[in-house]
Amino acid sequence: MVKGANVGLAALSEDVGSVMVSLGWSSPTGEGDADVSVLLLTADGKVRSDGDFYFYNNPVAADGSVQLLGKTPTSDGNEDRITFDLTAIPADVEQVVVAASRYNGARFGDLDDVRVTLADGSGEGLLRFSIEDAGAVGALLFGELYRRAGDWKFRAIGQGYESGLAGLAQDYGVDVDDDAEEAEAAEVAEMAEAENVPPQATPSEAAAEPVATEAGPATGAEAVAAVPSVAVPAPGPVPVVEQVVSESVEALAKSVPRPRTAKKKVTLPKVAKKSLAENDTWRTARLFPVSALKSDRDRETRATSVLLSVMAQVPEFGRRLTAGFGAPAGRMETFTEVSLPNGDSPRRPDGVIRVERAGKLWTALVETKTNGNSLKPEQVQAYMDIAARRGYEAVITLSNDVELDGSPLVDVKTDGRRKHKVALRHLSWADVTHQAQMLIRHEGVGNAAHAWLLQELLHYLQHENSGCHGFQNMGPAWVPVRNGIDDETLCQGDRRAVEVVESWERLVRQVCLRLGGELGQKVLPVQRAKRGTEPRVRRAALADQLCLAGRLDSELRIEGTPGILALTADLRTGKLRTSIEITAPEQGYPLTWAKRLIRQLSDAPADLHVETLLDGHAGGPRGTLERLRPEPGDILPKNNAEITGFRLSLFRSMGNTRGSAESGFIRSVDEAVDRFHDHVVVHLDRPGSTRR
Fold first, then answer.
1. In a 10 Å sphere around its CB, with 0-12 CB exposed, 13-18 middle and 19+ buried, how is residue 236 labelled?
2. Reduced 3-state DSSP string for 40-96
C-alpha cells in the first residue's frame, strides 16, 4: 500500500473476523526499539475513556477485542504484534488507531524498514505498508481500521508526532498522567519545609480524608461542601463553608484521581512463606505430580493435559498462547486424546482447543512432543489434511525445538484447491514457560486461584521428569563440525556448518526467552544482517564465517541495560566470552570515569577483563578487575587519546558434550550468560540515569 490508500478487508479474505496487525522495524546498530499502542475512537475521533488506550501497561481489552502480544524477533529486527477481534469491537467505536512511540529522545527516522502488515485469521498476509519518510518524530501513527457500511477497512497513514506519545494520545482525548500532582506535592512540601509550615494536603489527599471541624468530622454532603480551596497556614478552625461553596465543585473535580489503565493483578510474592513442614525432606503436595512418569508417551500425555487444562482455566494465559494463532478472546474449552474419523483408522491427536466467541467457533488440533523427540512430518501432514476436511482453523505443534524464520520444523504440503485454509503453528516448551513466567512473576493474573494454577504449571514444566525443558541438543552435526575446526578440515559450503549455525540460533533464542521470563524484561537477539537478506542466505554466510574463524557469535539486547550483551563461542580454544560495551560519559574527566566504573564493579568477579576503547585506534589499555581495583588509572591511555567507552568481558570454558547435561555446551552457555548478567550488567548505570 501507499500512504493515504485504503482497502476493504472483506475484499482481501473471507476470514477477517479476527486479524493480526504487525508493526516492524530494524536498526543498523541493532538497538532500535519502540512501544506500540492502540486507541479506540468514536465517531467524533475521541476515545470514550482512558480505558480505550491500550499500551504496554494495559495490553488486553476486557472483551478480548484488542490484545497486544509483545515483540517477536525477525530475521532483521523486531515485529510487535496485535490481534483484533473485529466482531467484538463495541458498536460505538468507529476507528481503531495503531501507533508506536520511541523513548529517551530516540526518533523513528533512525530506524530502517518501518512497516505495518496485516494478516487474516488463518495467518495469511493481506497487505503491507512501508513508511519511507518517518523523520525526526518520537511517535508515529502507522494506520487505522475503520467501519464503512458495516464492513471494516484499513487506511495507511504514516503520520508522525514530534510531541511523542503524549501529544498523540492527547489529540485523541486521552488524559495523560504526567505526574503533575506528584511534582506539585513535592514543591509544596519543599516550600513548607523552608518556611517551617506544615505542608498542605494534595487535592487527591483532601478528597480521600473527611475535613474535620470543631463540631467533629464531616461526613456525606458536609464533607463535599467542606473541601478546602485555600491552605491554612496555622492550626485553627476550617474556613466557613459559605466562603468556599462557589469553589467546592471545582475543587472536588480536581480531587478525583485520573482513571488508571493499569489493573490490579495478582503476582507471586518475591519471598516464599516459611514452610510448616517439620524438616526439609517433606515434599509439598503438587497439583500436577511427575513421579509416575516412566515413558515418553506418559510424558506427552501428561504434559498435554496439564497445559491445556491450565489454558482453559486461566483466560489470560490461554489467550496469550493462542491469540497469535488467530484465536479470538472467548470461552475456551480443551480436550485430550480425541478420536477423529479417518477412513478405517481413526486419528488421535494429542489435544483439541475450541474457542467460542459471539456464536462463532475457532478450533485447533494439537500435536505434542517431549524430551528430544522430534515432530514427524507424516503425522503432522495427516493432521493438516484432517483439519482441512473438518474445518479446523489451525494445527498447533508443541515440542522442545525452537522454530526459526525461514527454517520450518516440518514441511507440509497444502492442497491449493481447498477453499478452507489451515494454519500450521508451532510453540516450543520454552515459549510456554516464558509466557507463564511473565504472567505469574511480573504482569499478574486476575485472581489468586489463577496465580496458583500457573505456579503449579511452572513447577511441572521445570521439573526434570516432565520432558518440557526446551531446546537441549546441538544436533548430530555438532561433534563433526568441532572436529573439523580443530583439524582444519571443515570447508565452506559444508551443510553441517549450517546445521550448527541453526542450532546456535535456536539456543540463543531460548536463552532470550528464559532470561526475559526471569527478569520480566524484553530480551531479544540482535540481527545485524542487511535489510532484506533471506534467513537461509544469512545463515549460509554465518556458516562460512564459522568455517574460517571457528567462532559462533551472537548479541542480546536486554531492556534497561546500557549496551548489547555479546556472546561468542570459540570452538578452536573451547572458550565462551560474554561482553558488553558501554559508552564514555559526555562530561567529567577520564580518571573520574575509571574510578566510578571500578566502584560500580565492586562485587564483580576479579577475573573480569576491562578494556578501554579509543577513538580511531584498534584498542586501548586493558587489565583484569583484580589488578585495576587498587589503581583505576592504569586503564587510561598514556598518550591522552580520546576515550569512546569501555568493554567488559568474562571468559569460561565451554561444555564438552552437545546436550544440556552438567558438562554440556548448552548448560555452559546458560551459566555464562547468567553469571555475566547477575555479576556485571546489573551493576552498571541504566540508560538515562543521573551521574553524580
1. exposed
2. EECCCCCCCCHHHEEECCECECCCCCEEEEEEEEECCEEEEEEEEEHHHCCCCCCEE
Cβ atoms of 444 and 266 closer than 8 Å: yes
Please state at what angle helix 495-519 crosses helix 535-549, rounded to 10 degrees.
100
What pLDDT was estimated at residue 171?
A: 87
| Residues 6 or more apart whose Cβ sits within 8 Å of residue 185 | 199, 202
Residue whose grid cell is 487527591: 204
Q: What's the rounded Cα separation, in Å, for the pair 489 and 62?
A: 60
Tell me how far the alpha carbon of residue 399 is from its chain's centroid.
21
For 1-36, give one letter per residue: b (16+ CB within 10 A) or e: beeeeeeebeebbebbbbbbbbbbbbbeebebbbbb
Residue 574: per-residue pLDDT: 93
Cell of 362: 475457532
Q: Residue 221 has what pLDDT?
A: 36
Tell me how many degrees the CA angle 67-69-74 measures, rounded to the nearest 5.
145
Residues linked to residue 140 through DSSP beta bridges, in sequence order:
100, 160
Burial class (CB in 10 A: 0-12, 13-18, 19+), 489: exposed
Element (H, E) at 514: helix 495-519
List, for the chain, all residue ranges whose pLDDT scores fall below the cut of 50. 178-263, 690-692
What single-letter amino acid sits at 213? T
CA-wise closest residue to 583 among 496, 643, 641: 643
pLDDT for 685 = 83
Question: What are the cell numbers at 391?
Answer: 474445518
Inter-residue contact 378 to 395 (CB < 8 Å):
no
Distances (CA, A) of 270 to 262, 442, 515: 21, 10, 17
DSSP reduced 3-state for 451: helix
Rg (the chain; Cα; Å): 29
> If 0-12 CB within 10 Å is exposed, 13-18 middle and 19+ buried, where does residue 397 land?
buried
Q: What percent of the chain has pLDDT over 70?
A: 82
- Contact predicate 514/441, CB 8 Å: no
Q: Read off φ and ψ for residue 23, nearest 5 degrees.
A: -100, 130
- Grid cell 516448551 in the structure block, residue: 429
| Residue 614 phi, psi (nearest 5) | -115, 150
Position 391, amino acid: G
Give the predicted TM-score (pTM) of the model.
0.69
SS3 468: coil
Spatial distance between the Cα atoms of 621 and 608, rounded to a whole number of angstroms: 14
CA distances from 244 to 202, 224, 257, 642 (A): 17, 11, 21, 64
Angstrom distance (rounded) from CA 424 to CA 395: 5
Lookup: cell for 173: 482525548
Handedness of CA 488, 489, 490, 493 (dihedral sign): positive
Asked if residue 207 lies in contact with residue 288, where contact means CB atoms within 8 angstroms, the answer is no
The pLDDT value recorded for residue 272 is 67
Residue whose C-alpha cell reads 530475521 in the numeric block: 75
Q: Are strands 423-428 and 394-399 parallel, antiparallel or unpaired?
A: parallel
Q: β-pairing, 360-368 with 394-399? A: parallel
Alpha helices in 550-608 (DSSP H): 590-600
Q: Residue 92 and residue 39: Cα distance in Å, rounded?
A: 13
Helices (H), 114-179: 164-171
Long-range contact pairs involving 330-336 (C-beta distance under 8 Å, separation at least 24): 330/64, 330/355, 330/356, 330/357, 330/358, 330/362, 331/355, 331/356, 331/357, 334/308, 334/309, 335/308, 336/301, 336/304, 336/305, 336/308
